[in-house]
Amino acid sequence: MRRDILKRAWVAIGVLCAILVVIGVAYAQDYEKRGKTSYVPVDVEEDFTSIMARMKAAKAEVMKRQMALLEERYDLSNRPAKGVTMSRGKPVQEGVRAKLPKGFNWDMLAAMSPEQLKNKGLFPAGFMPLPHPNHPEGGMLFPKFHIDEIKKQEGRDLTRFDLDFDLPDHLLPEFPAPIYLTTRPDLGDVSQGKLVTIDNYYELFNGILNPKQIEGLRLLVTPFPQQQFNQTEDRRSERPSRGVTCFDCHANGHTNASTHLVGDIRPQQFRHRLDTPPLRGVNIQRLFGSQRALKSIEDFTEFEQRAAYFDGDPVIATKKGVNILERGSQVHFMAEFQALLDFPPAPKLDVFGRLDPKKATEAEVRGEEVFFGKGKCAPCHPAPYYTDNLMHNLKVERFYEPQMINGRFASADGPIKTFPLRGIKDSPPYLHDGRLLTLDDTVEFFNLVLDLNLTQEEKEDLVAFMRAL
Predict the structure, then answer these.
(1) Helix, strand, coil % (nearest 5) of the chain?
(2) Residue 190: phi, psi to the nearest 5?
(3) pTM for the whole structure
(4) Is 265 helix (H, G, I), strand (E, B) or coil?
(5) E-assigned strands of 175-277?
(6) In this structure, what DSSP letter does residue 407 have?
(7) Which regions of 37-133 does DSSP assign to beta strands (E)?
């Protein structure tokens, strides 16, 4: 009897151990998925000289890996569309740049179900989430043309010693962008062809803005400490930095395609690359942030400097010198100026935001019909500003297996804000993370994801219409 009791006890112990192992494995998997911690170390023990040397040494390999990914995914050549330019004359790039799987064309892919594309691994790589040039590191990263102009005007250096911007200049917005004001449409572009900075904002806008708006603009071009650009030993600029400005990403109230990682997702590998959206037309928008759904431009302005500048970490923000804006005056002034930024002129649109058939080409008219019909664009992008001010989940994860891509774990993105399409040709690349390089790419992407079955002529007409917005 004693042996039976001991035997049953050992069996019970064995079962308990097996259960604990299963629980342990499940916990380890959940722990890995959830991430070790939401926090970055505050007390950095490695000295700055050592950090910089280590990261400089790793830079070539990091950039080589990212550029190899871009070359594998995209046709990065300079192929301007004939006779189509942005508002101040920079050529608009044409053609689908995402590369096809070998042996397939777009019609063949469009004929397949999401399950077939997923099971066979045929979803185009260029339609997958795009990682930051160094996703495990992240942080604000600026195109060289912006770095050079800021250095020339202010002597402030936005160069990172660990990284360079990855996309070619011809695939980015024109620089510096024109500025249109809702209050003075009679003046047209008020930028005078200059990048607005702390050095010239007053001479450019005195007499056009009221004193509150000028003060708001001053704050938008004033450098404040940020995660990678500050005075601490864990900065990413060679010299101690005064920081960055709102207009270092939203250059001239538009965008220069600077990139960053969103501050509201953890762990690091799940954070989205952020393609900086234009500030043009924020007066008609009701949601701010690609996923945060902040309800006012004041909320967004305050959130950016208090949290997004420092990856959503208030402890790090305090260490690096966070600028606490005063809501009743400074935030309000900044928001008031931003609300003046207008969309670029669209001479072919009428007062309802629809094409004037007397001014439009036949292709544009056909494209408008596709946009409001078979293309299913209008439910999310209604006229006149071509946004519904809501968020939508495209569930693109239906088309591919979750996978790690250069440090970015590609899985479900969740709901994303509907961005306005007015002036869309001025702000490549597209989608919230910049994975779509041209308007042709966006049409092909949505044709596949929404199962639209558009013909080649319908796709081309749709692109023509969007260029007229």
Answers:
(1) 40, 10, 50
(2) -100, 5
(3) 0.92
(4) coil
(5) 259-261, 273-275
(6) T
(7) 80-85, 91-93
